[in-house]
UniProtKB/TrEMBL annotation:
GO terms for cellular component: plasma membrane. PROSITE patterns: SPASE_I_2 (PS00760), SPASE_I_3 (PS00761). NCBIfam families: sigpep_I_bact (TIGR02227). It is found in: Cell membrane; Membrane. InterPro entries: LexA/Signal_pep-like_sf (IPR036286), Pept_S26A_signal_pept_1 (IPR000223), Pept_S26A_signal_pept_1_CS (IPR019758), Pept_S26A_signal_pept_1_Lys-AS (IPR019757), Peptidase_S26 (IPR019533). Residues 179-199 are annotated as: Disordered. This is Signal peptidase I. The active site is at 79, 124. It holds the Pfam family Peptidase_S26. The chain crosses the membrane at residues 40-64, 221-241. Keywords: Hydrolase, Membrane, Protease, Transmembrane, Transmembrane helix. It is an enzyme of class 3 (hydrolase).
Amino acid sequence: MPAQAAGARAGKRKAAEPFPWQHGWQPYPRRIPRTGASRLMIAVWLGLLAAGAVTAALGVGSIIRYRSDYRTIDQSSASMSPTYWPGAEVTIRQVGGSAVRDGQVILFSVRDWGAPGIGGTYLKRVIAQGGDHLVIHSDGTVELNGSPLHEPYLRPGPLAPGAPIDITVPEGRLFVMGDNRNNSNDSRYRTQNGDSDGTIARSTVEGVAVDPASAPVRHPGWVMTGFWLVIAGGAGGAINASRAKLRAARLTAAGVLPPPDED
């Protein structure tokens, strides 16, 4: 009996009336219907944002990777011509003196020579290392450990005569010269100080010159491209949101959507 009475009361309960702004009963307000074009534009703006963020991140990553192992300098003098002419951009792989090999062009601090240099560094070629017996004749020809040194990198033309040098390079030191022997302030002239053998310490080496093609590629342009893609995506998204608000206002005025302050 109690169950039958409850059922009878339930049967007499008045059904909930829909709100005036609803077209047919539903348990929650209808969302703003989106058109295909609206969905497409949202996808476009989100795509631009994502593409911009990825592009900028890749650009920054390439720059960080390059700067962690490499640097670029401008050769200021003719002392290394014809290998590097004045104004040439030189790619330097940043390594210590222990990695230096015969014949490599190195960037080193000139603190051992007490000379200011350009930015405190010089660019020269390694001719001899610790333990090597080096002889430079008065006509400029070079012998290394008893054999003539083959130097295809020298600037063409006769070598200027100079004081002969006969030295055994101390361990941990390097004897360096420029490729333009007639116009290079290098180890040859530092031996004339009397208190120096003209060599430099391996610890002064800051890096070796390498082919630019062997260095990681930098993409600074990607950073700006990514930045503008993010700006475009954000601006487009803001415009899309503004248009959605205007459309919601029109639907509210037409009675399709409830006023913002209604539950």
